[in-house]
Design brief:
Protein name (chains A, B): LacI family DNA-binding transcriptional regulator
Strand content of chain A: 15-25%
Largest sheet of chain A: 6 strands, parallel
CATH topology of one domain in chain A: Rossmann fold
Order of helices and strands of chain A: HHHHEHEHEHEEHEHEHEHEEHEE
Largest interface: A-B, 53 and 53 residues
Structural class of chain A: alpha/beta
Pfam family, one (chains A, B): Peripla_BP_3
Distance between the termini of chain A: 75 Å
Strand order of the largest sheet of chain A: 2-1-3-4-5-11
GO molecular function (chains A, B): DNA binding
Keywords (chains A, B): DNA-binding, Transcription, Transcription regulation
CATH superfamily of one domain in chain A: Response regulator
Number of strands of chain A: 12
CATH class of one domain in chain A: Alpha Beta
Oligomer: homodimer
Amino acid sequence: MAGPPAAVRLSEVAAAAGVSIATASRSLRGLGGVSDTVAEKVRGIAEDLGYVTNSYARTLAGGSTTIVGLILNQIDDPYFTEIAAGVVRAAEDADLTVQIGHSTRDPHRELKQIRSLVAQRARAIIIAGSGYTDPQRELQAKELLARYEAGGGRAAVIGRHFLGVDAVQPDNRGAAGQVARHLVELGHRDVVVISGLPSLTTVEDRQGEAVKVLAAAGARVTVVETDFTGHDAGRAALGALDGEPRATAVMALSDAMAISVLTGLRRAGVDVPGTISVTGVDDVPVAELISPSLTTAAFPLSELGREALLLTTRPQATRPRRKMIPAQLVVRESTAPPRS
Amino acid sequence: MAGPPAAVRLSEVAAAAGVSIATASRSLRGLGGVSDTVAEKVRGIAEDLGYVTNSYARTLAGGSTTIVGLILNQIDDPYFTEIAAGVVRAAEDADLTVQIGHSTRDPHRELKQIRSLVAQRARAIIIAGSGYTDPQRELQAKELLARYEAGGGRAAVIGRHFLGVDAVQPDNRGAAGQVARHLVELGHRDVVVISGLPSLTTVEDRQGEAVKVLAAAGARVTVVETDFTGHDAGRAALGALDGEPRATAVMALSDAMAISVLTGLRRAGVDVPGTISVTGVDDVPVAELISPSLTTAAFPLSELGREALLLTTRPQATRPRRKMIPAQLVVRESTAPPRS
DNA sequence: ACTGAGAACGCAAACGCTTACGTTAACCGT
DNA sequence: ACGGTTAACGTAAGCGTTTGCGTTCTCAGT
């Protein structure tokens, strides 16, 4: 650190206003014990001088942090960036700053991120992404978060079940059910379900409901598991279609996979929805831009993020809150009745 | 803060090891002036006690942060999220954490973000997004950054000119030139250029080169300005096409706008590329997913982010570095020779 | 045995802010 | 007009580290 103390300090603001730093502090934090006149004046001067509280000093002195940690499964997936956008915007409204990390769906990495956030005394931690069907696998994370909350921190998850903290839950079963029902109503009775890693709760929920609804309607269902990122969903779908030549629809359990399927089918010269109908789940922004535009179940993604952030600003409840967010079926161009 | 296990402090570690906190600090930080025996012992005890440095105290006392601030023009634009992904990944490799903010292209907001980051003693600040053609408009930011770097911070920008710090520059002129040349080679001689706010340098660069290349080829050029976010580029394009019925191509200066144009044309029942060819610039992920897939000039977006982060990890050079990143023309389905 | 140079370590002053307490002054009722 | 409140401020004690110096100790050199 060569040089000039770049930042304006509270003491300078106080001096300029002709008051003590105590009064200046109180004025800025809006606490009582200061006349409105003085408080107003201090705030004005602070503004003019471009004063920004040194969060390190503030925190050290007993104030709390303004950092909110956000851990994403994957950073370049539109599903998550939409959620992140919601969190960031809500955070800025609440004068908080967001620190982003990503876990690549690796529990170990995720643990490391949480620990780092705890050490940073983050005011809140938000984890977005699917959990694991094996509770054992997130036991450590759960303990860590419990200790963190006991210590005054706030945590919330988006789309998880077992972490013991407040949760915003996209209604995955409902979403899958709606899409499946749509397919059934169109008349499809032989559908390929492109699924993801069965160890993810999101996958389990969506797949379970999809298969249930489809089977209840007497449809033949073929489930194909891929890696849920959509990287080879297209290839997987083509393979399955080869094995199931009578299939009339491909139901992908996420938009990412559905888009991959669409691309694969287009390359293979298969007409959608003429020959095969395709559906997704999530309604990422791209869904309506691609062609044919995608029939899917929409979640208000950025609102999921906003809701999670808001949960963390409220005091901890005695029992973890659970806010279920319903999905809404969006019928677009990628689905049609099966060719008779 | 109902105070559970107050964190272990350095003083406790020091006491347990029978040394002063000064020695303890030096031992842990691996500085000289401590015998290996003692240093080793202190480290062992710290480990046993589960000591974690209080980053606030450390920073306040003059230590440095591991925070990298990233300011985005817009948080939910794929162009920026791709860049952000590159930054985040590179940062994690370097054991840094990223704090994200967004400015909505508002200089005032941007200033506030920078100040906040400076106050947070961020180790580095990265600003992504177009600058303003009016240098006056970013004078304050420039000063702020200069002071920040003088104080030991590191800053880098992506896609800006005037900020006086290291820069990663997508070759906007080159990109626009390549696309324009492609159009010319296809035979287009009457094209509508969908441009953005002229106050943005990115717009100025792209538009300047596009118009230059087009005009040099003897083409009629109609420039339409929109807001560069793509919100009404579609409508704008339709309007321009009404006024220029002989136009055979629409060259949008960003993919976001191109996609909007594509949507607009599709709704209006115009055949692309049969009747009108459409091009973009950037090559966001969606570009190849939409239909018709978009002819555009590709920038390796996440690499832009990675490069910027890497620049900030190197010591400051005597003169700001400037890394120009070339674009590469990607011809897809949205362009074809004009209908004769 | 004495001096001087280092090595090894301790002291204490910041860092910029929050906040418990103490002080001052204006104002109340009687 | 006087004790007693109370609002409005100022004082100063931390918060947990880092670090510039000062101090002590060791040991080689003479």
